[in-house]
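[Q] Does anyone have a clean structure-token version of this?
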Amino acid sequence: MRKILTQEMYYGAVVSHKREAVTMGGKHTRAVPKEEQVIVEGMHPGIVTKEEFEKVQAGFRKAKKPACGKKPYPLKGKVVCGCCGSSMYHVWNNIRERWHYGYWKCNRAAYFSGMGCVKYLKDEVLEIAVWDAIRGMVELAGDARGRMRILVEKWNGESAVLEKERTELQRALERCRSEKFANVDRFMAGGIEKDDYQKRRVELTERAGALEARILETEEKLKDAERGKNGEILETLDVLDGFSGEKGLTAEMVDALVKKVTVYGKDRFEIEWNFSENVYQFIMGE
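[A] Here you go.
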């Protein structure tokens, strides 16, 4: 009866493009989402009006779900098949119209069985694995912040030394440039011979080049120190601290920390984080 009440044909419409090929020229097909189907109304007399039909659909949408209904799945959009690289999708196991549990599967698994794609992985298995990884980092965040404070103090000391070194090098470069101008003036005034002028010019040019290179090197070291003090590690630690009171995996947590989860099998996963491998190793104390 429910199927009859959800068919557009009973108010006079014809629906097409209900299924489409999985691959170009392939034999396998899949259902097309309702919003992408082609519905042409008024093709034949209906046994109910369109208004009556839509009223019934609204009633279905408002119908209360069973007490053990669908739970949100925080890894939505993050799970990838390690075999073919396709996004895995979430499915709810429906037995006698009651939702019991959800699982992940690769869309290609049903059509390309020889590829080794994951056909079935219970969602709670994957969620526990990701939560355990995040919980471990949250627990280590305090120790990592302590080590970070020591490094920041070290970087501050190094920065002061580098700043002083850069200032001295810049002064030496200015003196060198002044000597180059003075050398030209002495030659133009006839105070030195051409050979002595050219020799001195080469010496001053080489010295200026060496000073400029050392200044650039010093400035790069200063940038590294500043990046360390204000960079990715501290930002990631702040994010982890924000989840210190959580008791389980949440969508907010996943969005903040996880780029994707690649599934190679029922007990083999790989998590790609939203931060670099260097940050992960620092937090884990590696």
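[Q] Thanks! Anything notable?
[A] Residues 70 and 222 are 53 Å apart (CA to CA).
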